[in-house]
């Protein structure tokens, strides 16, 4: 007797309108169950901060060259372990920094798809990945932020490392789209290493995250801060996420169980910094 293989779940990628060379390239991966009667168990969790199992990301550049790489993660936040399941109609969305996987992608209008591992590989529909060149102060600021951590000149290294600038980069001089791309790593770094706890974070910067996958991430971060300080406001953001991005409900539930992204980053980094006198750190020069 033979057993038929389960059909793979469906996958799709959501991207920003454009990215910049040398900047973070945050894309959203959604795995969803379009069937009425199939249940999925222990699916690979592919996430910027999650399980080290992964998917295969493929970019075909506008000159026809193929760039492919397996998923790698920062592993900054302890995982609860295992994969995830999907009931009929359910979805699971995660955020991935493509720049961490393919740091040398050139400027151009490329095609991106992902191959998600299952008994039969699930392949997402291709999307346009537009990468624009950076020049002048835009490139200088991006490089100053990314290369601040000695020995690991990546956005992963930026979030792993506690450091201060000798001179604050001129953020006020960069184009809005460049500042939008820098906002998430700067905000997460501040959450991890700043003097204030999660409840005291300044959320005004998140107003810049008003498009695509970054808009959804901003709503999740607002929910986590409100969960710690303002339960009615947290309920508002809970409702927003459930209505607009049902694949991100798992993040809401993790925050409510005490495993929010900001708390995880801060707990981990503060344990490493307990030996450092706080008066040695000039917060005005911190990210």
Proportion in β-strands: 15-25%
Total separate domains: 2
Instruction: Write the element-wise H/E pattern from the N-terminal end onward.
Output: EEEEEEEEHEEEHHHHHHH
Which structural class do you get from the secondary structure elements?
alpha+beta
Quick one: overall form? globular
Tally of helical segments: 8
Fraction of helical residues: 25-40%
Radius of gyration computed on alpha carbons: 19 Å
What about the largest sheet? Answer: 6 strands, mixed
- Spans where pLDDT lies below 50 across 5 or more residues: 276-287
What is the number of beta strands? 11
The overall pLDDT average reads 85
**Span between N and C termini?**
61 Å
Explain this structure.
There is one protein chain. The chain is α+β, with helices and mostly antiparallel strands. It folds into two domains: 10-132, Immunoglobulins (Immunoglobulin-like); 136-285, no CATH class. The protein is built from eight helices and eleven strands. Strands 2, 5, 6, 9, 10 and 11 form a six-stranded mixed beta sheet that branches. A three-stranded antiparallel beta sheet has the order 1-3-8. The radius of gyration is 19 Å and the shape is globular.
Short recap of the structure:
With 287 residues, the chain is α+β, with helices and mostly antiparallel strands. Helices cover 32% and strands 19% of the residues.
Give a quick set of tags describing it.
287 residues; alpha+beta; Immunoglobulin-like; 6-stranded mixed beta sheet; 3-stranded antiparallel beta sheet; 8 helices; 11 strands; 32% helix; globular
């Amino acid at each position: 007797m033979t057993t038929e293989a389960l059909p793979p779940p469906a996958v799709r990628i959501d991207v920003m309108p454009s990215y910049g060379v040398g900047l973070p390239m945050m894309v959203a991966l959604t795995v969803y169950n379009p069937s009425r009667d199939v249940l999925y168990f222990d699916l690979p969790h592919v996430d910027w901060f999650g399980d080290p199992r992964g998917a295969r990301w493929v970019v075909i550049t506008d000159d026809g060259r193929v760039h492919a790489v397996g998923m790698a993660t920062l592993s900054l936040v302890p995982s609860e372990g295992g994969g995830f399941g999907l009931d009929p109609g359910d979805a699971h969305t995660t955020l991935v920094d493509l720049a961490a996987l393919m740091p040398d992608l050139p400027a151009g209008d490329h095609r991106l798809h992902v191959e998600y591992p299952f008994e039969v590989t699930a392949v997402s529909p291709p999307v346009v990945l537009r990468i624009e060149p950076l020049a002048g102060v835009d490139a200088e600021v991006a490089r100053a932020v990314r290369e601040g951590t000695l020995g690991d000149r990546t956005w992963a290294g930026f979030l792993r490392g506690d450091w201060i600038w000798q001179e604050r980069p001129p953020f006020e001089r960069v184009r809005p789209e460049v500042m939008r791309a820098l906002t998430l790593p700067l905000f997460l770094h501040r959450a991890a290493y700043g003097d204030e706890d999660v409840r005291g974070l300044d959320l005004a910067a998140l107003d810049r995250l008003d498009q695509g996958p970054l808009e959804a991430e901003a709503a999740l971060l607002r929910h986590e801060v409100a969960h710690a300080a303002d339960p009615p406001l947290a309920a508002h953001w809970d409702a927003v996420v459930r209505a607009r991005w049902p694949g991100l409900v798992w993040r809401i539930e993790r925050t409510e169980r005490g495993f929010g992204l900001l708390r995880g980053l801060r707990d981990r980094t503060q344990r490493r910094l307990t030996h450092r006198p706080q008066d040695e750190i000039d917060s005005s020069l911190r990210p």
